[in-house]
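Technical note accompanying the year-one report. For the benefit of new consortium partners, we illustrate the data format agreed upon in the data management plan: each record pairs a sequence with a structure-token string. No post-processing was applied to the example shown here.
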Amino acid sequence: MGKKILIAVALILCFTMAFTGCSTRKKESESPNSNSTTAVGAKVAPVGTFPIVKEKQTLRVFCAQDTPVENYDTNDFTKWYEDKTNIHIQWEAVQGAYMGEKLQVKLAAGDFADIYMNSGLSESQIVMYASQGAFIPINSLIDQYAPNVKKMFHKVPEAKAMSICPDGNIYGTPRVNESINESFPKKMWIYKPWLDKLGLSMPTTVDEFYQVLKAFKTKDPNGNGKADEVPLAGAYGAKYANNEINGFLMMPFIYYDRGTNVYLDNGKVTFSADKPEYREGLKYIRKLFSEGLIAPDSFVQDRAALQALVENGPENRLGCVPAFYWGHFAIENGPSGRDKEFVAVPPLKGPTGLRQAYSRGSQIFSNRIVISKVCKIPEAAMRWADWFYDNENMLAEGFSATIGKEGIGWKKAEEGAVGIDGRPAKYQFLMAPGTLQNNHWNQTVGTYEDQNYIFSVAAGTPSSRKEVFGTSESKEKYLPYASNKVVPKLYLTEEQTGRLGDIKKSIENMVDTYMVKFVTGTLDLDKDWDAYLRELKIAKADEYVRVSQDAYDVYLKNLKK
């Protein structure tokens, strides 16, 4: 009997230990993905007070390596902001060329960072992984811990509408920039010394532009006795969207957004690349190409080739080039000084009298800062991110996430200095944008750069020329013809994404391929146009427009919230 009792006791003890062990293992397996309880010692300080947490906490941040930033770990702003917030950042910065692949591999493996910042997360990735619980909704976090984000959403309702997913939640905060210069990315630049030498006026119509290009080709404006002038050249590919020939030159015929091939016509999503007006635009560009006024390499080369035309040799060889600004085809503040000799061509009037500038309004880059489910201190993470959305406060504290420390990246404007809008300036750049440095994070963060902040930079310094001269050219030449018909980036439901599949990419590739063939003469615009339209129909262009319209209708509803 004694032996039986001992056996029973042993069984009970084993069962108890096994049960306890199972219970412990379950809690351990749940804890990495639980954000219901704030990490020990991470109680968040009231909004507006610092440090954010009493005991130092660590956040893992996955981001794109911004080219001008030397090292995020040793960066001056990294160290300063850690001291201010008591939050240490463990960085994983990935070079742009590998960003998409690395991001997808890590997401698929469930290897989540606490925060994704400027990580290239697409709308479809947000929807898919949010539905699986990988990213947390931040609606209530914004209400409680992000007054600067709330203020931005109030001032720019489009930014909020573009941040709301199909399930009604917000999973990421955007970057918003109200620069007038950047509102007009598809400009055309012309080498003014050639206009002056040949006694030509600035072209204002498509016919005048054609005549100017002919003069550049035949009248030796660089004066070297050689027929080496290139009247018009561009670059091609996703990285050089604003350098593409068909951007600026299509606008006198039809509103054209090469990345989407759709535009808004009285609130309706409309396909552009099948319209008679689009065809007329192709005919015009074909005419320029057939007469040798467009460099054949424009459909294959990169920006380095454009820069070579401008900078290499004793004289400039390039007459006109489409670009956002001169730094995309010349050496900014370079030894030749030729970057300063290009000026913007105003929007051209087309054969029907249409004259419009491609305008995208405020620059809104969605999902700049996203918090994942593994973050133990989401409240603190939200407060950490919110500070970046107050540029005035950053300047007041003497250290900005995007332009660095006072005295190194910028300084307070001198007395009497004037800003872009003519009012007294507040700050002045000491470091040219794009300079390699280890003082700030450049454009890695989500920010709200409103016009008051942008216009308060001191004019007249080399470092401010991009914004000052770019704004002047945009306000004078483009703003009077601004036409914002761009379809915003839209969230699609998983069902809509499934319906589209590869349709959008297939259509984009098809339009691009036919465009090049029509312009270069490989295909005939009269004989082959109907075949092109049939291919678009087979590719389901109509379905693409229907789905886009459904998603845009949801965006309009969100805009009213």
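Partners are asked to follow this layout when depositing records. The first strand starts at residue 57 and ends at 64.
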